[in-house]
Amino acid sequence: MSAPAPTQDQIAPAAAPVAAETPAVPPAAPAAAPAATNGHSNSAAGGAISDRDVTEWKDRFNHVLAKPSEAIHQRSPAGASAWHESFFGCFSPIDLCCITWCLPCITFGKTHHRLRRDANLEGYEPINTSCLLFCGSSCVGLYWIPLAMQSADIREKYNLEGDCVSDLLKAFCCGCCALVQHEKESAYREPLLASSGGGHKEQYQPSGGMSYPAPAEASAPAPQQ
């Protein structure tokens, strides 16, 4: 006699398949911070302060303080060109005039970036080191010092006529007119400088003293017969 077939309750449930263990994937490493450009690092405050600009301004001030007489007597070389933009043409264009009147430090920093960083204003930020320098010097009434130094930069780079005394007078008497003239002159000259492959640059020469002609050499006496 055969054994009875097992009922459904007596049948053991099949074992659930064991899920294959997957190796844990380590979290991705954070991306490295981009390296600083232009050979200098910026501060964490949005890159407003550039170490390169700070060092450059500090060296320029130290040079002037070390040799004040030489700085005062600086002048453009003979044969320098006339300025293309008028000192009294500060009302045009009207947008530049209004910005300079309300926020002169913005115009100063923009011109400085075009002169010493990039002619096409690549990487320019309205709030930069030179802008903050001009703003700080204005708070103590010394804005005319960096403004006169910028005028000297323009004369040197584009070989324009003028001297240190006239730079100081223009900056002190009408800083807004000087700022607008600097910005317009640099915007006009930079394309010409680029098209000429670097343009003409001459260093300032201190004004020389009076020169006297060399005495004529005495002729040797004729031999006697």
From TrEMBL:
User: What InterPro entries does the database record attribute to this sequence?
Assistant: PLAC_motif_containing
Q: Which domain of life is it from?
A: Eukaryota
| Region of interest (Disordered), ranges | 1-48, 193-225
Compositional bias ranges of the Polar residues kind: 1-10
**Compositional bias (Low complexity) spans?**
12-23, 213-225
Q: Name the Pfam families for this protein.
A: PLAC8
**Which spans of this chain does the record mark as coiled coil?**
none
NCBIfam families referenced in this protein's UniProt entry, alphabetically: A_thal_Cys_rich (TIGR01571)
The protein, known as: Uncharacterized protein
What is the species listed in this Swiss-Prot or TrEMBL entry? Answer: Thyridium curvatum
